[in-house]
Amino acid sequence: MKNLWIRYTALIKSKLAPSSDKEVTGVRFWQDQLFVTFLVYCLPVSLIALLPCVYIAIQAKFFLIAFVDLFVFTFLLGITFTGKLTLPRKKVAAIAIFYLLSVVLINSLGYMGPGVIYLLFLTILISLVLPIRFGYWSVIVNTVMLAVFALIIKFNLFNTVLSAVYSPASWLAFSSNLVFASFVLVTLIHRIFERLQVAILKKDQLQHRYKSIFDKSPLPMWIFDTETLAFLEVNQAAVIHYGYTEEEFKAMTIRDIRPAEWVPATEQVVDLNKKSGIYYEGTSQHIKKDGSYIYVKIESNLLELDNNKTRLVLATDITDQVEHQFEAFDTHKKVKESEANLRAVFDSTVDGFVLLDSKFNIKLFNGRATELIRLNDGKQEFETGRSIFDFVQPARLPYFRAVIAKVSNGELVDYDRRYRTVNGDLSWIRYTLTPVYNGATVDGISLSGRDITVRKRYLKTVEDQNKTFREISWMQSHLVRAPLARIMGLIPLLVASTDKQDQADIVNYIDISATELDEVVRQISNKSNDIINKYPAISAARPSADQAPKMEM
Questions:
Q1: 353, 388, 390, 393: which is closest to 375 by C-alpha?
Q2: Do the bridges between strand 308-317 and strand 441-451 make them parallel or antiparallel, or are there none, so unpaired?
Q3: I need a labelling partner for 249 at 20 to 30 A (CA). Which of 3, 277, 500, 513 fits?
Q4: Ranges for the PAS domain (predicted)?
Q5: How far is CA 298 from CA 281, 309, 498, in A?
Q6: Torsion, Cα of 473, 479, 481, 484 (10° steps)
């Protein structure tokens, strides 16, 4: 039965020729739909009144009524299933045939018959399916028609049952109630349609506004079906940005703009959001028509569109941001590696370093700073954030402040300081204070300390050796030369002398000179040995950490 009704409805709608208007919108659209519904239900429902009325009319020998009833039904059947009449003409034809029916019934049965009911029905039908001005005209037509019947009754223009039952006054009294009811109903329908038209207009304006927002949005937007994942609507920004035409988009699904490896995750997200209906925000990778890959920020919400669950998507291209983030990450990684390398160099250097800020507070120091930067008598542990002056011995504070002031003015200052360890040995530290610039402004100070004890000892050794070498050189040029010269002078005399006594004296003098020369050579040898014994090979070893050095002013 249901399938039969569906086929019947489809048949009627297929026979409805389109309106002559190019575009029917608003209340007109709903009036046309209402008339179509009237035609669909009119024929089967009219049988409820037609069959008993025809039967009773024939039994009562009202053949005219039976004929008119059958004629009206046949006429309605014809205009319903014909495809040659437009919808407005079908409306006029249906109204005209019902007016004929009402006139015949009023004339035959009087005011209490169904004819008057049909007049009221026609006023309502005209007001519902035609512009409201025709509803008011129908009230006028009904009034004129009822007035004509009053004249027929008064002057008995032709044979009618009305003349036998009603007087003109009673007929007009009954008719005025019908006119009143018709006018009230038309007015109410008029007001309803006015409000309906305003509501439809507002709805259309709202739809147009949101459609314009959707179409004119500078960001790509689309609507897709959560079941098939097919694109339903796309805006111009999406067409321009992705390179696909609107028709190409609507022939695709959201899978087609994603890399294959992203599709399972996308389907899972859509399925979860379809069930939860919550707002979604995330990032994805899309493929444009030219094959290029882009990163996008996705924002979407669930929509009910034509009884289907869809999602409205806003896609923001963040490719440049992501690339910048990758570049920033790589740069940050390189900076971290550079900082780690610099820190390793900073911590492993043989010098002690302390970095001060513009207010002379400690910003940074390495592990050798405690050992090699000795600003007071005790062993000191530097702390970041504290002033460097907190670690300076009070007696040395004025001198240190003066040095800091010079460096703050852009000078580079270095000086040596001597310390004595607990075992009495001397150690030396060279301090170097360097200004740290930020542009052209001194923004801090670098303080370094280096153990130069070995260098000092080496220099002292060189100085002592040079002094000894000068003494040896003097001895060689003065003390060695005198006995050697005498020996060299006596040897020729010894060779030339024939007197034994003279030879013995010469040999004695040679012996005295040789002994003197031997003494001088021994002294030179002793001085050389003294240098070797006094200054052996210098070790690079420094004083141990547990030797508490003391400053020697």
A1: 393
A2: unpaired
A3: 277
A4: 208-275, 340-409
A5: 6, 18, 130
A6: -140
Domains in the chain: boundaries: 2-201, 218-317, 322-348, 350-451, 458-534
Q: Are 46 and 121 in contact (CB under 8 A)?
A: no
Identify the bridge partners of residue 466 per DSSP, sorted by sequence position. Answer: none
Tens-place pLDDT, residues 405-414: 998 898 888 8
Cα separation, 412 vs 435, in Å, equals: 7
Could you tell me the mean pLDDT of each successive run of 10 residues in the chain, 553 residues long? 80 65 64 86 85 85 86 88 86 91 85 84 92 92 90 82 82 88 92 83 75 84 93 93 94 94 90 86 92 93 84 91 81 70 62 85 80 70 85 85 89 83 75 87 86 74 70 66 75 78 80 80 73 55 44 39
Q: Does domain 350-451 have CATH number 3.30.450.20?
A: yes
Among candidates 223, 251, 220, 252, which has minimal Cα distance to 236? 220
User: Residue 293 — φ and ψ, nearest 5°?
Assistant: -100, 140
- DSSP code at position 522: H
Q: In what order do the strands lie in the sheet with 352-356?
A: 362-365, 352-356, 441-451, 426-438, 413-420, 550-551
3-state secondary structure of 98: helix
Structure-token match 């959560």, residue found: 226
For residue range 14-33, what is the model confidence (pLDDT) as tens digits? 776 555 444 456 678 888 88
Domain 218-317: CATH architecture, name and number where available: 2-Layer Sandwich (3.30)
Amino acid at position 483, single letter:
P
Six-digit token pair at 14? 């297929």
Tokens 């695709």 -> residue: 252
Output DSSP code: residue 230: B
